[in-house]
Amino acid sequence: MRFIRLFFVLSNLFAATLAFSQISHGGTPYFLQPSILRSASSYFIEMPSFNLDSVLRDDAINEGNMRGSYRFAYKFYTNISINDGIQTVLPDGTTIKQIGIRSPGAYSINLLLNDFEIPPGGKLFIYSADHSYVVGSFDYRNNSSDQILPIQPVAGESIIVEYSEPADVPFAGHFTITEVNHDYRDILRSEPGRDRAGDYDCMPDVFCENAAEESIRSTVLLIINGSTLCSGVLLNNTSDNDKPYVLTGVHCMCDPTQYPKDMDYYNSQAGTIVAFFNYNRPVCDANIKMKGTEEMSLAGASARVILERKDLALLEFKNSPPDYFNAYYAGWKRDLTETGTKHTNLHHPSGAVKKYGMTDGTIRVVSIPAGDLLDADSHWAVPYWTIGSTYSGSSGSPLFDENQLVIGALTAGYSQCTGTSPNGMTDYFSVIGKGWETDTPTNQLKTYLDPKNAGGMNYPGRDPNRLNPVTRLANARYTAGDSLITSELSSPNQGFVFGNSNLKTVEFAEEFNVTNDVEILGTYFLLPAFSDTVVVTVSVYTGTTSPQTKIYSTAFAPKYMNYSSSSGFNLQDKTLNSVPTETFVVFDKPVSATKKFFISYAISGSASAKFCVYNTKFGNASHANTAWLKDATKGWVTAEAYDYRPMKTSLAIQPLARNTNNTSIEAVTIPENTDFYYDRSGRVLTLKEPLDTPGQIAVYSVGGQLLEKIQIQQGQTAFVLSEKPKGTIGIVKITGNYFFRTGKFMY
Hints:
The protein is mainly β.
């Protein structure tokens, strides 16, 4: 049977909308140093021309059959050895090899390296010919058994590959560039994942809806073989041992019309996968289409379960997510009947930031209308979406029940947005219970998800940081009233208040106050789009009244993981010149700080270059200032006391931290746009102002379950809540005759 309007929800995007690569390790390429290399890269290997009109016609046909892929790049297969480049030997014996590659008309270029093996001391960078974008360094820690390293897209039609190696290395590094991918869609300069206007208008971002925090932390974006984009979910198992199992769809790795394939094929495909965690839009401002962080990724997996005719794939990644990912291992349920009235879906349509969907319709197991490609009665039918829809790239995304347990993964569907509303059509999800036991014990979900043979129909999720929760500290709430702005100086001065300017105020800091000593794992920065080359240093200060003692510094050098079939996984520098971006700077070790600390950034380079961090326009005028500037003459001053443009604001800097005594972090209260306080020690919720009439407090879980309900008497302000597991998120709804407010807190 042919597919009639039904499509496998799959996209063949070569991940240029994302930074995807192995972890990079910092350092400085030689072009940034005053050396002869500034003029050495004048030789470029040029890619041949190709017929773009023909490629676009092929794409249109492929997309028109409703189960094809979304391509953005034309692939050149090459055989360029690093030894073919221009070589320079420095006085200390260091050898630098550079290769220029040009593909006329390309919006960006990404590479795949093969036979990749470099010694300790060797460093690899890839950067645009105008030096505006750099990825790397990659070093011996990026060596792998398959000797491949994929490099993320670098903006522009000309790039340079730079490899340096000291004189005393144990062996000579080597690699070959086997793929050059020419971006003809300009994906780096548009909001990621949006093919046409209106495609996602009915799909809310997860932080702008009532999505469960645990579900957000478990859902991941997958890039397969550098060309295919899908979604997936991190699952727990009955051993609670944090094995990194990810559930997705088999069709993400193979076109169903090409079934069957053997396990060797699927293992080769799994070995190319990069999983991105926390790729979420952190703001709900419709005017700022911000990309989520791309620095949290795992690379390389093995295929554990492949059930083609049920479209169930369970992968195991080589490494578990580190603590700073703050990942959550979702629970699962294998029942074949569903009685719940609310099911949710989190997904990455065409590589977009994570989206939310919810249905209040009754789901049931049906046969998917896909001819003889899939087994009968093997899929959940979601009859319609109450909120949201799915799209190409949503394939493999989880379907959660009302208790946030995973029951299946997206295979296909008819749903789409009609303006800001879903179109009321059906989507189909695989059924975990249908793949639980098979005739082959090594190819069934039970073996991996229930290694203790507990036999239960469901199993809860697991937070690996539950004993020492990781908290994202923030002095502003960009999903609840506060907004991002870029403050500029008033004439006759020029530049940004919190960035480059003629005043040479080049270091800026955000103040944080917590009740206990903490260790800081890294920090988020929310950035406007800039194309200028600047050098930025991130530091941590302590001090009782102002930033006084610098206790840690690191370079601001955001990276992402990339993969190519010729070179494998590699870290690449992240492009910051296309759209506003959330970027995470991971510290190489946890940094211990006192109850008051400051995160700063210092800018060096041309005074005319443009770089700043967003600052905040508060929704509540009573909010305290937390921003600082280092004045050229006065030293550190608060933003309120800055002579040139005083203001009350916060910088969009948000560190990840946890207490050193294994308890949840409690931020010292700063007035903000909420109507209550919560004191965890006494479990007391206090209203800022008493209600003029009787009312009610209702507390819900993030999944929508009512946790408790309390009646408010006129004039009453303090209420003792019941005890819940530490870390439980409560959604508070306060109502009176003429009053309605909501908020969030943690038990």
